[in-house]
Write a structure and sequence with these properties.
There is one protein chain. The chain has 2 helices and 3 strands, in the order βααββ. With 112 residues, it is mostly helical. It has a domain at 30-47 and 59-103. It binds zinc ion.
Length: 112
Amino acid sequence: MTKCPCCASPRIMSRNHGRTVGGAVGTVGGVAGGVASAWRGATAGASLGASAGVIAGPAGSLLGSIAGAAIGGLVGGAFGCELGTRVGEAVDENLLDNLECLSCGHTFSRSS
Ligand SMILES: [Zn+2]
């Protein structure tokens, strides 16, 4: 059981600032990257289909592009959030004073 090094209280809370920020940043980056790559793929597929006359006209191309971007954004966001959260957890554990005493407000890291 972790205790406060200042007042020895067992009422300790994890702050997890790095985890929260990392998850948010990772989600945004992942969505942006996922949409961008999916959009490129969808646009390439749409122009290819249009030039070949296979896909059902401009409306079909547009719908395909939007669906591709949406799926890419969801997948990218999920991966980005996971990655960012893990990086943030590592930052919390190693760099930040991640623990806060609820009795006296002292902040400290697990190792100290
Ligand atoms: Zn304390």
